[in-house]
Amino acid sequence: MSEEEFYVLAASSVGIFLFWVPWIRDIMVIYDRRGRYAGIAAFFAPFFALGILFLVLRNFASLDVRNNPVYIVFYMAFGLAWCGLMTKCFSFLGLDFRHDVAEQDNYAADVAISGAVLGSMLCFSGGNIGDGPGWWVVFFCAAVATVVWMLVWVVIDQVNGVCEAITVDQDLATGVRFAGFLVASGLVFGRAMAGNWVSAAATWTDFWRVSAPLGVLVVVALLLDRLFCLSKEVPRQNVFVAGFLPAGIYIFLSAYYVLRLGAW
Amino acid sequence: MDEQLTYGEQLFVDWAPDESVWTPWAKPVLFNSPALSKKGLFSPSAVEGIPELETFANPTGRVVIVDLPGVNSVRAAVTLAGLGYRPVPLYNGCEGPSAVIPVRELMDAVEGATAQIKDRGLSFNAPPAFLLDSRRMSGFPAFGNFDNRWLIFPQDFPSGNLLLSKGFSEVVLVSLPDGAVQKDLAHVLLRWKESGLAVKFFSFATQDALPLNVPRSAQYKLFFYRALAKLGLHPNSAGGFGDVIATPSETSHGGYG
Predict the structure, then answer these.
(1) Residue ranges per domain, chain A?
(2) What is the ipTM of this complex?
(3) In Å, how far is B162's CA from the nearest CA of chain A?
(4) Is the C or the N end of chain B the one with fewer CB within 10 Å?
(5) How many CA atoms lie less than 13 Å away from B32 in the CB half-sphere?
């Protein structure tokens, strides 16, 4: 491990402490209204996300990483810190973990934020797939994928007010559906970043080529959000029909697309 | 189960019983204060109501937001509970040393009014009267102060759709001066108005509910409004707001010499 990588590892460790300790503390410490257990999904999400990253590193990273425990730990720490940083960004996108989940005990936000954690980790994981010259390639790929993923989030939210339906209406169906979309889009953007490093320009071109079909999923999501919008007649949607079913379809379609693409 | 509750937790349950429809929105922060962990630290006395609000009878279809300073908010709660409304405490600032907003009197009043609220035997579905402290963003925090200023957001209230679906048709704001709308509350009232609820204010002068014109902020429905608004406030580790503003260390290397 080079001196530069050592500093990245140190910074990642600080990031993990700064971002994830308050996350766990907020779930455990903030005074609960009895009988409500929002936060369970958010509690396990980072562990699950870390598991995904581990599997990617062990199976799809460059050979010198996948067979070296030190580099596995290095990239897992990097990924966890990255994902933690993204959780701080979520509040600027309309989902505030502390306010919505820890304080308001909002199940819809719990599920949606958990989906966002997984989605952001999928974006990061994609940058680890294939051969590359170093950690900064992973950083570049993760940054591009995550920023575009967040832009899509903002578009979906701004058109139909999804985050308001989750945080103000506390509609669990919308939370599940949006979580499904964030995971599905994270999967496609992550895959779009997979591959052996050639150049930033080539990565950029590949990214748009591979992720372009996600536009179809965005249109479907916009239509379904409009179809399942809330009103005084229907202040809460059916969780299966408007939540799990669309979320399952999103994830199935994106997984099918990624599998159909095959190796990078 | 109740035997395991601290005194403060028991007070909270008396204000916001588990069975009440509005309990998910009640804020336990003030009740969770260490000062309220044991009975007898304060000497609470019964709280007098606000007689002008007694014209507010017949709460069917009406939601009330009380945005009055400190103890007056609790006084309004006592009166409104007598008329059939269920007070829902939304006080979200903690108590602390050198607090920017003094809350000891408010806590004393909340404790004193607890029996009055509980004895009303209010229905769990009774129309809500959401209680706010209009001083929530007052004061000038300085280094070493306990900054317990707080804001409310649309997420702290039920949605307009939910209120309409439960048969509510109007919202009445009780504030001073008559009809004064704080910026943070405007975000809530505008959403409710857009949903189809009639938004009114209570006039202490005429003792009647009159239509309210809610000012529209440029940040209304801005997707990062909440994150932006929270910058500069100090969250408390146990929930809500309130933390000491760190004093810059005298031995820091930030200056010359």
Answers:
(1) 3-261
(2) 0.89
(3) 6
(4) C
(5) 21
